[in-house]
Amino acid sequence: MSDLNFTLPVIWALLLGVAVALYVVLDGFDLGIGILFPWFKQETHRDQMMNSVAPFWDGNETWLVLGGGGLWVAFPKAYAVIMPALYLPIIVMLLALVFRGVAFEFRWVAKPAHRKWDIAFAAGSIVAAFAQGVVLGGLLSGIPVENGQFAGNSFSWLNPFSLCCGLALVVGYALLGASWLVMKTENDLQQRAHAFARRLLPAVLVLIALVSIWTPLAIPRIAERWFSLPQFYWLLPVPLATALLAWSCWHGLRRQHDAQPFLSAVGLFLLAYVGLLISNAPWLVPPSIDIWQAAAAPSSQVFVLIGVCLLLPIILLYTGFIYWTFRGKVKPSEHYH
Question: What does each C-alpha distance from 134 to 108, 165, 245 come to in angstroms?
Fold first, then answer.
């Protein structure tokens, strides 16, 4: 294998990994707002919740497009296996995101007859989050592959582990949404968000522990990676850092800090994501196709990589500018339109 054939797939894998991480964190908290929506009945609270994510939510989904498009361009063999294997949960996720986006816009113009859009916003957020978790669980639990092609059926992804991952992501996004509200709101809404975050944090930790235990028990290659020596000692900081961030989140909530709970919850998500990468790298379709087997021709990778290198700094600068411009607390008197 030449240096270029080895290096380009690694670069693309890192880019896709960063895109997925940014999507999970950035779109996670605004999906969390929708997941929490049914438990906030007061109209002013609901308006303020939506206003807190209004400048960001559509831009956050840029990273989902980059992740999916990059997989198709850089790793077409993996894309050709993953899509038919997970077609149903992926299409459900995309339709839910569409309904959620439409509801976000139409809710404001339909007032006061906007109840159906409240339902669509909440349902779209919950279904999209659950479907994303199912996709993750279906991928981790293994996709049957023969001769480089998907060899299962339309429901090969459906198993208890994938459903558990779906539930875990819904609860995790809800924690991100609640801690985001703690950071971005004040008074009664902030106190209600505090109460939800304090209930959600233990649930998230239980689900993280459940998935972390279930995965090595069900998949021997993952158990070997984490518990063989000397890898065990090298990887021990990951669970220790997770425990530290969980304490930081709880401490921030108990001390009524604004930003600490959200930043700690983001850290929990990123560490869980790092743990999944450690468990499965370099497989794109575990345990059959790795990044080098799935890679496109080097000329194709280089061509698209040039475009990504030109556009990615602009996207990052724009994203940073938006978050900086709309920093601070959201007031009840502020409106989306």
Answer: 31, 6, 25
Q: Which amino acid is located at 263 in the chain?
A: L
Report yes or no: 181 and 148 within 8 Å, Cβ to Cβ: no
Rg (CA), the chain: 20
Alpha carbons 200 and 254: distance in angstroms, whole number: 14
Residues 6+ apart with CB under 8 A from 74: 9, 12, 16, 295, 296, 300, 301, 304
Residue type, 249: C
Task: Give the integer Cα–Cα distance in Å for 292 and 283.
Answer: 9
Which pairs with CB-CB distance under 8 Å and at least 24 residues apart come from 102-111?
Answer: 104/50, 104/54, 104/57, 107/50, 108/336, 108/337, 109/337
Q: 22-35, pLDDT tens digit by residue?
A: 998 888 998 999 99
Would you kindly state where each structural domain of the chain is located, as residue ranges? 3-325
Tokens found for residue 327: 């920093």
> pLDDT tens-digit profile of 267-314?
999 999 999 889 888 899 988 899 999 999 998 899 999 989 898 899
Domain 3-325 has CATH 1.20.1630.10: yes
CA distance 251 to 160: 33
Q: Say which residue the tokens 């991928």 belong to.
A: 139
- Count the alpha carbons within 13 Å of 3 in the hemisphere toward its beta carbon: 0
**CB 315 within 8 Å of CB 65:** no
